[in-house]
């Protein structure tokens, strides 16, 4: 590794080495080369290092390189900034993302469309829809990537109509949509229950825009129909598809079967899902929930046994919230947090107040055959509620609370959080595994459709 130094062209060879190691994901060697000679600390090799870390989802390490580069008085360029912001979006690191934004404002990249597009995405993925829209409005001549970003953000935040409006503007400005545009549009329609519009867009893909729908587009149509309760249409659509539906499509359908208590179609979907993803506990859990919802306790038991025999473990739900630059993670009925007592007190207080406002727990959601009072406790200690209670005791009243969750928010928590936002007069943003919910004044932005 040392021989390149003897060649007298450290900069070029060093850069190439850093780039090669970074691209191969060997960050240790890449960093070794960079630390051997200060000649290698330049914008090219730093960008390689940052990209390498972002690719490995090690955003904090990428940010450290950025800090070290600044110490070497290296001026970042638009690619450095957009890579770092991309990293922050991927891990929903709002604080770090916003800090980068503050630095960008002081540079000549403040109006760079590449950087602004990354910011649209970052603010959107971190839950701040209005900031995301503001960033988009700053882009002078948005290209297809910028339009795709804003349509994707609106879709994720359940702003279906606004997403379709954006698309209309995009077409008016003669920007040609691509397959990602349609993916986001279908997602927008699906999350907002715009069935007719979604089907129209799906049809227009090939007919008007000459874009061959891919498996993910078909899968989203199944999701769209399923969520709207059009199970028969979803089933017919599956039979007409030129592809085998993806696990996502079967999972959506299974979810829809759960909501609409359709056991037979649910069994078909669950079987397909188990074939495609045998290690995924979701299909077993959903199926046992469907059986529980129609009171087929024997089938619930059989499904659970099947799960145990196959060694499938239920993915535990957990939620996390950032307070004072620290991430606090909570599981279901998780009492390991050092401030347990304070949180418990807050939870109790919230329960009393939301009940006065009219909250009624949805006990039928608990699939265990236990007493109602136990069921109510179980719902009450879902991880997102613990995280919200904790954040309420910690963060200043002027700031919205942003909680993230690895699984879908259940219907009961959704209802409880609406009441909590009302009694506390706070804006609460919850990002689950599919989308964002903005709770304020007793309402959610999703309009209870998700
Ligand atoms: Zn819940
Ligand atoms: Zn919602």
TrEMBL record:
UniProt cross-references to SUPFAM superfamilies, sorted A to Z: TPR-like
Signal peptide: none
Keywords: Repeat
Pfam families attached to this UniProt entry: DYW_deaminase (PF14432), E_motif (PF20431), PPR (PF01535), PPR_2 (PF13041)
MF terms (GO), sorted A to Z: RNA binding; zinc ion binding
One BP annotation, GO: RNA modification
Ranges for domain DYW: 358-450
Protein's name in the database: DYW domain-containing protein
Species the sequence originates in: Asparagus officinalis
């Amino acid at each position: 590794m040392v021989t390149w130094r003897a060649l007298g062209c450290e900069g070029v060879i060093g850069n190439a080495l850093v780039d090669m190691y970074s691209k191969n994901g060997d960050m240790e060697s890449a960093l070794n080369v960079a630390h051997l000679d200060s000649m290698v600390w330049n914008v090219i090799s730093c960008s390689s290092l940052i990209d390498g870390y972002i690719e490995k989802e090690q955003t904090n390490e990428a940010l450290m390189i950025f800090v070290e580069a600044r110490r070497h008085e290296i001026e970042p360029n638009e690619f450095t900034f957009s890579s770092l912001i991309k990293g922050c979006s991927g891990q929903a690191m709002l604080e770090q993302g916003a800090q980068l934004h503050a630095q960008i404002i002081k540079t000549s990249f403040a109006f760079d469309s590449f950087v602004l597009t990354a910011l649209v995405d970052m603010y959107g993925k971190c839950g701040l829809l209005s900031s995301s829209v503001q960033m988009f409005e700053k882009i002078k001549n948005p290209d297809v990537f910028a339009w795709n970003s804003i349509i994707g953000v609106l879709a994720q935040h359940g702003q279906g109509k606004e997403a379709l409006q954006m698309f209309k503007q995009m077409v008016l400005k003669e920007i040609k949509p691509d397959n990602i545009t349609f993916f986001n549009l279908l997602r927008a329609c699906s999350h907002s229950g715009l069935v007719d519009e979604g089907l129209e867009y799906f049809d227009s893909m090939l007919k008007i825009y000459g874009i061959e729908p891919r498996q993910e587009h078909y899968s989203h149509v199944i999701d769209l129909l399923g969520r709207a309760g059009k199970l028969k249409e979803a089933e017919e659509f599956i039979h007409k598809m030129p592809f085998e539906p993806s696990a996502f499509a079967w999972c959506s359908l299974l979810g829809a079967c759960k909501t609409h208590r359709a056991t037979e179609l649910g069994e078909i979907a669950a079987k397909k899902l188990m074939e495609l993803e045998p290690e995924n506990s979701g299909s077993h859990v959903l199926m046992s929930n469907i059986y529980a919802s129609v009171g087929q306790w024997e089938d619930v038991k059989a499904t659970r046994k099947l799960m145990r025999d196959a060694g499938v473990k239920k993915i535990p739900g957990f939620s996390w919230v950032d307070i004072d630059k620290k991430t606090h993670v909570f599981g279901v009925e998780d009492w390991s947090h050092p401030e347990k007592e304070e949180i418990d007190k807050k939870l109790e207080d919230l329960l009393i107040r939301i009940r006065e406002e009219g909250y009624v727990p949805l006990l039928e959601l608990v699939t265990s055959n236990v007493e109602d009072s136990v069921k109510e406790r179980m719902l009450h200690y879902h991880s997102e509620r613990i995280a919200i209670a904790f954040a309420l005791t910690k963060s200043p009243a002027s700031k919205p609370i942003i909680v993230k969750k690895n699984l879908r928010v259940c219907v009961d928590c959704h209802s409880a959080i609406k009441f909590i936002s009302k009694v506390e007069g706070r804006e609460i943003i919850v990002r689950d595994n599919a989308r964002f919910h903005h709770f304020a004044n007793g309402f959610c932005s999703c309009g209870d459709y998700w």
